[in-house]
Structure formats: structure tokens, C-alpha cells
């Protein structure tokens, strides 16, 4: 299952979540939402997996990406495949 690391006040995270909703993706069914605000285990995981402390961060098996528009485009293509 895909994991999306985010925190609530991040506008780029909100954009990704809005687009996921438009695509009909459901939290807990299509992807896991992981809290990654400063000081959380989720933020430590983002740094461990991706190398930098930035969200949104998507992990889908071996695919790891940070940029919100790249994340949305990747998931759009995956969904239409």
C-alpha cells in the first residue's frame, strides 16, 4: 500500500490530498496517511527513507518521491494503468 507522509498545515500536502480525493482514493484502502510533523516518528522515517526532511513524501514499494505535482502525476498514471 502506498504511504503518504504529510502534516496538516502543509499546503502542498493539502493539494496532494485534494487530488487523491478527486481520483477517488480512500485513506486506509488505497493509501496510508502518515503524520510527519516535526518531532514525530513519521518525520524520522521520511529522512531515513528519502534523505531529507520534506513533505509531502510518497512511498510506493521502491518508488519514493517528494514533489507534490510529481506525486499526483505518478498516482494518476498508476490509477489509469
UniProtKB/TrEMBL annotation:
It comes from the Bacteria. It comes from Leptospira fluminis. This is Glutaredoxin. Residues 4-79 form the GST N-terminal domain.
Amino acid at each position: 500500500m502506498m504511504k503518504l507522509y504529510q502534516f496538516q498545515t502543509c499546503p502542498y500536502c493539502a493539494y496532494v490530498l485534494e487530488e487523491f480525493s478527486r481520483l477517488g482514493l480512500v485513506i486506509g484502502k488505497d493509501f496510508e496517511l502518515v503524520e510527519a510533523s516535526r518531532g514525530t516518528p513519521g518525520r524520522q522515517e521520511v529522512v531515513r527513507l528519502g534523505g531529507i526532511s520534506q513533505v509531502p513524501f510518497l512511498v510506493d514499494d521502491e518508488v519514493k518521491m517528494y514533489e507534490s505535482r510529481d506525486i499526483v502525476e505518478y498516482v494518476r498514471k498508476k490509477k489509469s494503468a
